[in-house]
Amino acid sequence: MNAMLEMLFAMAVAGSVVAACIVFLRKVPVDLFPAKWRYRLQKIAILFYLLPIAVGISWIWPLIGSNPATVHDSPSVSDGGGLMVAEPPLSVPTIPVSAAFVILGICAIGAIGFAARQLYDYRRFSAALARTRIALPDRSEAAERLSLIKRELGLKGNVALAGSSMIRSPVLVGLRRPVIYLPAALPADVDLDMVLRHEFIHLKRKDLWVKAFALAVGALHWYNPLAHLLRKEIQIWSELSCDEEVVIGMSHSERKRYGITLLNVMAGSGNLPARFSASLSGDGKQFKRRLTLMLNAKKMKKKTMFLTVAALFLIAGVSTTAAVWASDNTPTVAAPVEAAPSGAEPTATSVPTAETAPAPTATAEEEAAAGPSDEPHATAAPAPDPTAAPVPSDEGHAVPTAAPAPAAAESAGASAAVAPSDEAHAVPETAPAPTATEAAAEPEAVPSVK
Questions:
Q1: Least enclosed by CB within 10 Å: which of 30, 199, 203, 211?
Q2: Confidence of residue 44 (pLDDT cuts 50, 70, 90)
């Protein structure tokens, strides 16, 4: 869970930095940063939004160092008893497990909902095109021009050509099986060669795949407004950069004819979803900019090329650095604290000592096995209390006292050495002599009279 949060946070930060730079570049003239390179920068933003490049760098970089095993180790300190204990790491923000599940759940629900809506719209659009599809003859003028331009651009994949009464502007549709749809009736002022060349350049640059990945960015980062802004920028600059590439070798008169072609097909572009297709018409709001860039497009100078490449590397470096920072500062999920079992308290292991070890006593089973005895048994007197006053003896008779209890170590060794048995408890061979008091208390034997 921590790795997933880290990747999502790092990708969001890295892609957002590039998207913010794209917004800033709106103020920069196209002469200093051409449309082609702006479109490439948007592809870099997609890459950072979808791939955890910075996370991989943060994981691999410690392995390249001289001592990878100690990169993430915490400093050790002594606990006062000679034992080295790891010092807690620096404070990192943490979130509970429940909050992490809520965040990931909301992200998943939003991504699935966004993707399902886009897939539904695409299926509707494809079904509508399929219902209105018109097959074109293989020997038609459009089919012959299609084969000629395909060989000229060096394309080897299969591209189908069809007509549709649903559209009024040429459009390229299909990721795996691309199809160029032409309107059922093309206007008279439309140059078919320029139309097909425009769509083939889209196909050569894999612009449909770029738009598909832009939709994936929108699904994964549906909560991020910069991700949706990136999708719109890609739809605009894919057309502008395609126009720039189409007219780069044309004369001024040819560029005017291309502009007239764009103007004639602009009327029927309202019903085409730009996120699923590559259309010649594009957005009508950008038509003035398209004409301006198309008429003024020229090969980039070496100085402009150097500045553009340097800016791309700078933006990529800043984005990677920001993503690494985000990876290191991602809030971690706090591990749940396990409750200790009832009645168990973590205490230190107790070692029996001479003061606390109890004296060994005979069990009830051993006393029952020994049976009753007429002779008085010697019982051990309780251990003398050092604080109690000494008891005076009667008539100078010495009262024997019980021997002190053996030490804990000796009693433990004796109990370990003697194994328990089923036999009766052994009685000492020599019973202790009765004391003078006990002898006086015993009754004298009376001779029996026959």
A1: 30
A2: very high
